[in-house]
Write a sequence for this structure.
């Protein structure tokens, strides 16, 4: 919804052509060209203005086709016209023809030609140049295809939009609603990280070289910011709502001792919320409802007001709808997947706002004064506020309501071309697929009252907003209350089941504890038995050790006694031997005498 890119159902060129055709009709009715131009250009975007020249060309179209110059085409004019008709038919049915498709088809045609005609084609197939010249001859353009989600294409049907307008017509007529009493609420997101990384066209001098821009690191507190806005068909904008990333308000201290918050960089009357991710939930939506009610107190004292929004879940919460209903506010949900052309804010406000934000981010990136600064939430809020002020103008708001067909309530805002996108999904037997848009709208218009007081419930029990829905009606609130009661009962059942499951877990845990205690007791008993057996074994081993030690002590004592006896006998024997030797030593000569005798004997041997 808010995060995806919004596209208008028709291009600016087609809208401008419509104004030119209207002006030509007025001229044929008697007005001058300039008077008709002023008439159709009132309250129209400048890009869509009809000019004097365009009106004159519409009144006086050129007759015939200019003579063709250059070599004749290889295919006949009739064959090329059949090709062009087939391409246009496929486009009208939502299927685009590519260059590859065209070349394959022409190659098949060439294969059926006579040999002399085939010889005119190189390699028996058309070239890229032939495709380009074919497109030039038949006013065809090669453009990037605009792929649309299948859900959006299926929802863009005549029946859905007709029912939506019929319900609104009944509500406006029944409650006498005026432009200042009809509001549109929507939200959109700004992914500053993606915008800082995107590229914009800049002025360069080719002689200098390539254009190199610095990268910007976006802080986490400013990666994504959500804006919620409400506007009236009279061109008034109520206080906007901003959702910033985080869980609490941020602030920073200034050099002078002051403190500032991101709210200081937002519009003065903005309501600021903090949430991660930075999106709108039912609580924040209730905060906006309270703000809206405060700003419309005087208006609601004299009658009801109407709020139109898409079918996002937070917008359709029972709390939000009951709060609106209790305060004299009617709520209407747009047809699902059609907000890109049925929601005024998406049609003319949020698109220009995002373009301005992208331009300002590019200017910030390329500003030398910001080279050393950090891209914070304060910078992001300042840039978004500037874009908000530039896009949230009374002219843009009124144009959005007019182009969405909401005010003045008009089916003329849409044509058969608006619903061409859903043609591939229509059955051949579906009357809405073949009936003109005016017929379908008139058929549903008479059923506005019954449609406004009825409700379609899906198989899951939710309210269907496929074709729009008066979501504050008694029928819708009854369904939502029943669904809320069913959810509450389901929550209670879930809580009871969770309690029962928890009790089972507790019982299983208690049983496990008892089993564990029994096992512990058994283990303790086995452990005590093993300990007693081990003690007995230790006692027996100790007794054996003591016996062995006693025997060993006795043996050692005996050995010691025998050894002592032997030592005493040996000592007596040695003493007996020592006595004669001592007597001999006592009678022996002295050493000096023995030396003198030895010397004399040596001398005698020498002389003799």
């Amino acid at each position: 919804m808010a995060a995806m890119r919004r596209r208008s159902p028709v291009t600016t060129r087609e809208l401008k052509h419509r104004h030119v055709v209207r002006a030509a009709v007025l001229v044929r009715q008697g007005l001058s060209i300039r008077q008709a131009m002023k008439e159709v250009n009132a309250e129209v975007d400048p890009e869509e203005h009809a000019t004097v020249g365009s009106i004159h060309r519409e009144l006086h179209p050129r007759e015939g086709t200019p003579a063709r110059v250059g070599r004749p085409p290889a295919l006949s004019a009739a064959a090329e016209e059949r090709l062009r008709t087939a391409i246009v038919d496929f486009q009208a049915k939502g299927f685009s023809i590519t260059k590859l498709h065209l070349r394959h088809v022409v190659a098949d045609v060439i294969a059926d030609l006579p040999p002399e005609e085939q010889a005119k084609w190189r390699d028996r197939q058309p070239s890229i140049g032939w495709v380009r010249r074919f497109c030039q001859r038949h006013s065809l353009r090669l453009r990037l295809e605009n792929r649309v989600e299948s859900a959006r294409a299926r929802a863009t049907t005549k029946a859905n939009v007709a029912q939506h307008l019929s319900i609104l017509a009944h509500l406006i007529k029944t409650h006498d609603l005026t432009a200042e009493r009809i509001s549109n609420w929507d939200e959109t997101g700004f992914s500053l990280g993606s915008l800082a990384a995107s590229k914009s066209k800049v002025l360069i001098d080719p002689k200098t070289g390539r254009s190199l821009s610095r990268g910007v690191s976006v802080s986490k507190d400013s990666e994504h910011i959500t804006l919620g806005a409400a506007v009236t068909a009279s061109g008034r904008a109520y206080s906007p709502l901003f959702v910033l990333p985080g869980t609490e308000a941020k602030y920073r201290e200034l050099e002078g001792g002051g403190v500032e918050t991101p709210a200081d960089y937002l519009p003065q009357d903005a309501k600021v919320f903090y949430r991660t991710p930075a999106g709108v939930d039912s609580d924040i939506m209730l905060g906006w409802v309270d703000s809206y009610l405060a700003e419309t107190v005087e208006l609601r004292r004299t009658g009801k007001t109407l709020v139109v929004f898409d079918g996002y879940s937070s917008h359709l919460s029972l709390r939000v709808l009951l709060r609106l209903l209790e305060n004299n506010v009617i709520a209407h949900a747009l047809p699902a997947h059609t907000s890109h052309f049925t929601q005024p804010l998406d049609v003319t406000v949020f698109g220009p706002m995002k373009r301005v934000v992208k331009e300002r981010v590019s200017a910030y990136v390329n500003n030398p004064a910001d080279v050393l600064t950090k891209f914070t939430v304060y910078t992001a809020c300042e840039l978004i506020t500037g874009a908000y002020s530039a896009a949230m103008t009374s002219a843009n708001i009124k144009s959005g309501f007019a182009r969405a067909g909401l005010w003045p309530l008009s089916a003329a805002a849409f044509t058969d071309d608006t619903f061409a996108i859903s043609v591939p999904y229509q059955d051949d037997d579906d009357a809405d697929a073949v009936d003109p848009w005016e017929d379908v709208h008139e058929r549903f218009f008479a059923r506005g009252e019954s449609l406004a007081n009825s409700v379609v419930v899906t198989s899951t029990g939710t309210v269907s907003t496929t074709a729009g829905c008066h979501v504050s009606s008694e029928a819708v609130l009854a369904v939502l209350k029943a669904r809320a009661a069913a959810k509450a009962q389901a929550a209670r059942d879930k809580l009871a089941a969770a309690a029962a499951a928890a009790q089972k877990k507790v019982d299983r845990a208690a049983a496990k504890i008892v089993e564990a205690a029994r096992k512990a007791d058994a283990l303790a008993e086995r452990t005590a038995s093993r300990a007693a057996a081990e003690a007995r074994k230790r006692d027996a081993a100790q007794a054996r050790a003591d016996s062995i030690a006693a025997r060993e002590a006795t043996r050692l004592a005996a050995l010691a006694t025998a050894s002592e006896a032997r030592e005493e006998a040996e000592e007596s024997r040695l003493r007996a031997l020592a006595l004669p030797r001592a007597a001999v030593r006592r009678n022996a000569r002295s050493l000096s005498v023995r030396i003198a005798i030895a010397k004399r004997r040596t001398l005698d041997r020498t002389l003799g």
Observations:
- Confidence is low (pLDDT under 50) at residues 1-8.
- The longest strand covers residues 182-191.
